[in-house]
Amino acid sequence: MPKHSLRQIATQPDPYAPFRISQAIEAGGFVFVSGQAALDLQGNLVGGDDFEAQAEQAFTMLATVLQTAGSSMARVVKVTIYLTDMAHFPSIVRLREKHFTRPYPADTIVQVGQLALPDLQIEIDAVALAG
Fold this sequence. Notes:
By secondary structure, the protein is an alpha+beta fold. The chain contains two helices and six strands; from the N terminus they run βββαβαββ.
């Protein structure tokens, strides 16, 4: 891919298309992944009010988008994790250990009042090396 070009990354189906959001963009040797939440590829909520189930789905969707881009969780260099309740921080530490490998990516974890949909409890965006 030429140095200054952009490539949109989209799964099939793409649950973000109706919102005019790219699931990810590849540019400059990196993949920039939009926030992934507890939604399946059809845009349905996964996990209901179960934080652990929602978090697993968010990590699964992150891995799916990265795979679609030709990258992987092992190539993630930076993540931002948005939580509606910081009480879930210990679960996030455990999930990061499960889904990422050493060296673990740089990370920011932030509590927010609400995410895009009222029932969402977690969203994860990431930057990964392309390829």
